[in-house]
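Researcher: Here's my situation. A collaborator sent me these components and asked whether they could plausibly form a single complex. I don't have experimental data yet, so a predicted model of the whole assembly would be a useful starting point for our discussion.
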Amino acid sequence: MLDLGSLGTADSLRQAVATLEKLCLESGYSAQRVHEITIAVHEALTNALRHGNGGAEEKPIRLRARVEGAALKVEVEDQGRGLQVVPPPPDLTLKLSGEDRPAGWGVFLMRSLSSEVVFVRHASGGAVVRMRFEATAPTEPVEIRLIASEGSSTSPQGAA
Amino acid sequence: MTPNRDQSLQVEHQGNIWRAILPRTISAELEDPLMSMARDAIAGGYMEIVLDFSQTDHADSASIGVLILLLRLVQELEATLAFAGVHGQPQVLLERIGLGQRIRMVEPRGDSPSAPSQNGP
């Protein structure tokens, strides 16, 4: 069980990922899978800082992780409004040709490397992204669920 | 060579090869120095650009954006780009987004990236 609150700075997020990496290794995940998990969680944390908290490092971010059976469950909580619209999957060819911006990989990596991604927006403020990691990554990016508040899924999004 | 444990960019030259040894962690901060130095290198006649990841053990999606910008620049200036020493987490990241399959891989040191390249001119 991992519960790291009061994260906010980029350095603290990196340290949190390093702590999660240690938990994963101790839990028996392969080196390859640990890399995949930490990539996805780092993207979630970075999104929490940049988008959820608007880059304000004084706003807290919380990382929770626990192993349940063969799965690792991770939650990243920030003070923002949550993901409003699922971005389309990035097209590397368009990005390489200059027809699309080079950035925009974070959500794609999260849905490509985890077995479940749920964005929850709390009515009282703040947002959580929940990810579940099995022993291996999915063969295709998973669908993302957007939930306006606990208990009511408003706009399930199709994967592309 | 001294291990590149700080966040600076180290550069080596050999023939017409310009090799940048990337730091331990790469992210968006890489953009300005890398793009500037690579542009100057190509202008100076170094037409083969090699990014050496040997000492890089963490990359994020923002660094992917930087690498895409560099590849665009290299193509625009009719130079070539190769990666060397990609391993661990950066390798997983590059393969997952498909960039690892688009860029030629060469040995970290002493190997000329002169073989035909899909991303070359």
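Model: Some features of this prediction you could bring to your collaborator: Residues 111-121 of chain B have pLDDT under 50 and may be disordered. The longest helix of chain B spans residues 61-76.
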